[in-house]
Amino acid sequence: MDKVKLVAKTREVFGRKTKVGKKEGLMPAVVYGKKITPKSLWVNVIEFAKLLRKSGESTMIELEIDEKDKRNVIIYEIQKDPVMGNIIHADFFQVRMDEEIEKAVEVVYSGEAPAVKELGGVLVKSLDEITVKCLPADLPSEIEVDIASLKTFEDHICIKDLKISPKVKIELEPETVVALVSPPRSEEELSGLSEKVEADVTKVEGVIKKEKPIEGEDPAKEEKK
Question: What region, left, alpha or beta, does residue 25 occupy, with left being phi > 0 and alpha being psi -120 to 50 degrees?
C-alpha cells in the first residue's frame, strides 16, 4: 500500500500548557515503538483529520518530525473528546518494514444485496473490523465486502470469500461468517414478540408494587426482622 505523509514537530510542553498549541490548531501526539524512546509531538489537527477521512486508521504513515526525522508509523490509538467527539490526541507506533505487524482493519460493506431489496430481508453484518498480520507495506487501509452476492437467505459471505492479498494473514477460521441476510419476521412472530414484552412489563410492575414499603412502616426495621 502507498504511504501517506504527515508533518509533526517536537512537543516540549505538557498538561495545561498544551492549551497554547491547541489554540494554534495543533494536537498533542506521541510516537513510540520497540526499543524506541517515546517522543512527544504536535501535529496539525486539520491535516490529521483529512488523513483519516482519506486513508482510514489502518494505513502506513511517513511521519516527518521537525523537517528532518522521517519515521514509518501506524496509528495505534486515537482519543476523542467524550462530549464534542473531536480528536484530541493520537498515538503513533513506529514499525520496521521487515517485521510483521498485527492491526485491526475496518470492514467496509459495499453494493446492494438482492435478498434485501427483492425479498425484504435484513442485512446482518457480523464484523466491523478484522485483525490482520502482515508486513507494514502490505497493510490494507480497509477490507471491502461486496454484499451483491447475497441473493437468497441461504447465501452468506465468509472469511474465505474475501478478496485479500495472499501476503495478508487472518487468524479467524475460513468459515467465519462476515455477512448474511435474515428473512423478515412474519406478522405472527412480531405479534408474539409484542405479547412477550407486555407480559414482561406486567411482571416488572408486580415486583415494583410488591417491594414498595407500606406507608407508616420503617424499611430499615423491616430489613432487620
Answer: left
Tell me the per-residue pLDDT of 181-208, one tens digit each, with 9 for 90 and over.
Answer: 999 876 665 566 555 545 554 555 555 4
Separation between Cα atoms, residue 3 and residue 23, nearest integer Å: 29
Choose the CATH number for 4-95 among 3.30.450.40, 2.40.240.10, 3.50.50.60, 1.10.1200.10.
2.40.240.10
- Mean pLDDT, residues 131-153 taken together: 95
pLDDT one-digit tens code per residue, 165-183 = 999 999 999 999 999 999 9
One-letter amino acid at 223 equals: E
Place of cell 482493519: 105
3-state secondary structure of 164: coil
Any idea what the Cα angle at residue 17 is, between residues 16 and 20, rounded to 5°? 115
Of residues 106, 25, 31, 33, the one with CA closest to residue 63: 31
- The separation between CA 101 and the C-alpha centre of its own chain, rounded to angstroms, equals 18
The 10 Å Cβ neighbour count of residue 181 is 24
Is CATH 1.20.1270.90 correct for 96-211?
A: no
For 150, the grid coordinates are: 447475497
Judge contact between 106 and 59, C-beta under 8 A.
no
Instruction: Give the CA dihedral 10, 16, 17, 19, nearest 10 degrees.
Output: 90
Contact 180/146 with Cβ under 8 angstroms?
Answer: no
**Model pTM score:** 0.73
For the chain, what are the domain ranges? 4-95, 96-211
Q: Are 48 and 87 in contact (CB under 8 A)?
A: yes
